[in-house]
Design goal:
By secondary structure, the protein is mostly beta strands. The protein has no helices and 16 strands. It has strands at 2-3, 12-15, 18-28, 36-43, 49-55, 59-62, 65-76, 79-84, 90-94, 109-115, 121-125, 129-137, 150-155, 160-164, 172-176, 181-185. The strands form 3 sheets. A 6-stranded antiparallel beta sheet has the order 1-6-2-3-4-5, with no helix packed on it. Strands 9-8-7-10-11 form a 5-stranded antiparallel beta sheet, with no helix packed on it. Strands 14-13-12-15-16 form a 5-stranded antiparallel beta sheet, with no helix packed on it. The radius of gyration is 20 Å and the shape is flat. It starts with a strand and ends with a strand. 17% of the residues are buried.
Length: 188
């Protein structure tokens, strides 16, 4: 049993007869009244995100988890297939358990979190950023750079990302997987 002082990003807890992962949290100590923790929780079964506030010292039931490295093999409809990089066992997971499946290309190594009690996969964590090649984008208009102008681009996985005007087809770009936004042009 843990309490609110143990809350951290990525912690899995049991709440309302479901398992949730803490996506964001903020300890708040108002000038008047008791302290509390404002959290954003994501259900690992449905993918639904809820906001919840825990009072300071509130007991929470944490879930013991194990992390393992898996390589993404291929997608087949709503099912995504992964292979353990240690023992080569394969598992299939539904698209709903993935954070950003549109940014995952074949061969990508991800971390899969398993419930230590029943060895069931809970969720898939992508790396902090991925490098993908731009397959289609319109050319930038010269002189349209007075502000931070962006244009849509399609990357090799089919995802659409807003990129700066200087990005062209064939460029490799680094994308933040948590927000799905452009970070920088990747070094060759």
């Amino acid at each position: 049993m843990a309490n609110t002082s143990d809350i951290r990003k990525g912690l899995c807890i049991k709440y309302n007869n479901d398992i949730y992962k803490i996506v964001e949290f903020l300890h708040v100590k108002p000038g008047k009244g008791p302290a509390f923790v404002r959290t954003k929780l994501k259900s690992v079964t449905t993918g639904k995100v809820i906001d919840n506030t825990f009072s300071a010292g509130h007991k929470i039931e944490d879930v013991r988890v194990e992390t393992r490295s898996y390589q993404f093999l291929y997608a087949e409809g709503e099912t995504y297939h992964f292979m353990n990089t240690d023992d080569y066992n394969q598992i299939a997971l539904q698209k709903s358990s993935l954070d950003s499946p549109e940014l995952m290309k074949e061969g990508e190594v991800v971390t899969i979190i398993f419930n230590a009690e029943d060895n069931m996969p809970l969720l898939v964590e992508m790396p902090a950023s991925v490098v993908l090649e731009v397959t289609h984008t319109e050319p930038g208009v010269k002189g349209n750079t007075a502000t931070n102008a962006t244009k849509p681009a399609t990357v090799e996985t089919g995802a659409r990302i807003n990129v700066p005007l200087f990005i062209n087809e064939g460029d490799r770009i680094k994308i933040d997987t948590s927000s799905g936004s452009y970070q920088e042009r990747a070094k060759a």
